[in-house]
Amino acid sequence: MRAVRKVPAPGAYAGRTAIVTGGGSGIGAALGSALVSAGATVVLADLDGEAAATVAAGLGPGSARGVAVDVTDAAAVQALVDEVVAEHGRLDLIFNNAGISLIGETQDLTLTQWDRIIDINIRGVVHGVAAAYPVMIRQGGGHIVNTASMGGLMAAGLLTSYVMTKHAVVGLSLALRSEAAAYGVGVTAICPAAVNTPILDKGQFGAVRGRDYFLKGQGIRKPVDPDALAARTLAAVAGGEALVVEPVQARMAYRLQRWLPAVTQKASIRFIAKQRKLAARTR
Ligand SMILES: NC(=O)c1ccc[n+]([C@@H]2O[C@H](COP(=O)([O-])OP(=O)(O)OC[C@H]3O[C@@H](n4cnc5c(N)ncnc54)[C@H](O)[C@@H]3O)[C@@H](O)[C@H]2O)c1
Fold first, then answer.
1. Distance from residue 217's CA to the centre of ligand 1 (Å)
2. For residues 250 and 13, is the Cβ–Cβ distance under 8 A?
3. Which of 19, 46, 229 to mutate to test the pocket of ligand 1 (most atoms within 8 A of CB)?
4. 200 lines ligand 1 (CB under 6 A)
5. Domains present along the chain, CATH in parentheses
6. Average pLDDT rounded to a whole number, residues 107-127
7. Is 143 helix (H, G, I), strand (E, B) or coil?
């Protein structure tokens, strides 16, 4: 959790090949841009293939391309990894970043919603690891970066299914990190608080819009800039860090939770009560 702020030097990732899932938007698009600026060749994979292709086109021909891949489809993720390895001879980095959020009271969630978030946020990451890790072992190195969330370290309110999936991603990443070290394969989990991406606009709690829920509700005035997070992530990869926790308030909250869990739980109960009141008032 060191605070490395340096943007990787141009050329720092020259000759390296990377896959970024969820690369058609937000954090994935920012990671793609940071990787290309640092000299890597990048494949942006997204359910929305057109969005991935548009982002890739903006990053410069030859350095990036966009493909339509659904991370819930294990065979499709395997085919993507096989294709990149066949083309470039290796895969240096995979960013298992595609994900969705789901705000709401747990009793209101349908099993279909549970399945969908588990499929994308957990199985999507598992599929990336299952396809890329053996390649990295064979080639004697590589780095796996999994996008979790602050919700993977702390139990944010009214996001139970999301929190569960992101805790799974943190657990997978930290356990694999110890196992992978002997093969020269690094593993990092990204755990940001709110980041300024379209995901913030996708949820709703009662009549409270997602952006208000994630930002105003939690007293966050300025969400993390995705480009700054991407630069920070590449620095963390270079430094072999386990977790990227951003911004500084998130690191402080995480520390408080480990030292005084009863305090953060009380705060969480208060936060939920406030959100329920707001949702009822604006309905
Ligand atoms: N923005 C935040 O506040 C925030 C905070 C913490 C963690 N995260 C995590 O960051 C990751 C990226 O989110 P973002 O904020 O950039 O959101 P975003 O909505 O801008 O981007 C997510 C991308 O994932 C893609 N995607 C969704 N389902 C997919 C699937 N089945 N297969 C392939 N692609 C799929 C979407 O099409 C979209 O392009 C997610 O895992 C999210 O949980 C976001």
1. 21
2. no
3. 46
4. yes
5. 17-281 (3.40.50.720)
6. 98
7. strand
